[in-house]
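Is this the right way to post structure tokens for a design question? Let me know if I should format differently. Anyway, here goes:
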């Protein structure tokens, strides 16, 4: 499976056929894994086996370590540690995979809106996108943490970072991005760290 189906489409005006309607109504929960897992089962019943969505994209998986010229600062490392703890709990319930942290405080969490919208919302909350940021005792620099689910099914919904993510971080005043090594796709390849370097954004990938 490749590409994206926005989760909010389950509430759209698109009328499903009888098979999809039956599938939707049969689910106890309608989070991403439940929905895509049910679709995978329907395909399996037809003799169609889904392969890992990264099987042909191995070079694009984040490798362990610092992926940019600038490593995270001490403050950003603290944000990452706290952010990973929060994001793991969020991912455990398949709500979202991204959190945005400032000074070890959780500013925004992802749900159906997606990572980029979550980052921009965090920027709005702290005033970055308003043009003028008031002085504060605490730093308003944001750290973005994106994790895989505890039992990440590599057939679908693998975490992805694109150039749009870096652009959203720049707009929101985010200075650091942390992802899971081997379980996050840098879908635009080398263009992502290059873009991050130009914006003085640090990217680090840790083994989950």
């Amino acid at each position: 499976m490749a590409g994206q189906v926005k989760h909010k489409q389950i509430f759209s005006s698109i009328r499903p056929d009888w098979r999809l309607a039956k599938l939707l109504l049969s689910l106890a929960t309608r989070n991403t894994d439940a929905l895509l897992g049910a679709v995978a089962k329907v395909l399996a019943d037809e003799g169609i086996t889904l392969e890992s969505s990264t099987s042909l994209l191995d070079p694009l998986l984040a490798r362990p370590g610092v992926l940019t010229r600038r490593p995270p600062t001490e403050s950003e490392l603290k944000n990452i540690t706290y952010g990973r703890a929060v994001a793991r709990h969020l991912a455990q319930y398949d709500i979202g995979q991204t959190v945005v942290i400032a000074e070890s405080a959780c500013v925004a969490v992802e749900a159906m809106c997606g990572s980029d919208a979550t980052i921009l919302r965090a920027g709005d909350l702290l005033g970055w996108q308003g043009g003028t940021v008031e002085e504060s005792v605490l730093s308003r620099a944001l750290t973005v943490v994106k994790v895989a689910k505890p039992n990440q099914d590599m057939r679908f919904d693998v975490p992805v970072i694109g150039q749009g993510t870096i652009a959203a971080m720049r707009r929101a005043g985010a200075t650091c991005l942390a992802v899971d090594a081997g379980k996050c796709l840098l879908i635009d390849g080398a263009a992502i760290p290059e873009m991050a370097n130009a914006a003085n954004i640090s990217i680090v990938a840790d083994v989950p």
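Format looks fine. Someone answered above. Worth noting: The chain has a mean pLDDT of 89. The longest strand covers residues 174-180.
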